[in-house]
User: Fold this.
Amino acid sequence: PGVLEYRAGRGLQDYVQLAGGYSSRADRGGVTVLRARSGAEAAARDVTSIEPGDQIIVPFRRQVTITERLQ
Assistant:
């Protein structure tokens, strides 16, 4: 987590790695990018470039209980 300096040519994964990488609790499939220009939210898989001011959001995975795992 944190604020990183924008550099042209860096991709989403570059910024995730610079921020410390994915934790074991990260929901990699739920990563979104909040676009600074438009305020639109886009799924990471649909993002081809990061622009100045964009926010990359990596949510936590939902915790599954033991009971849920056994069902």
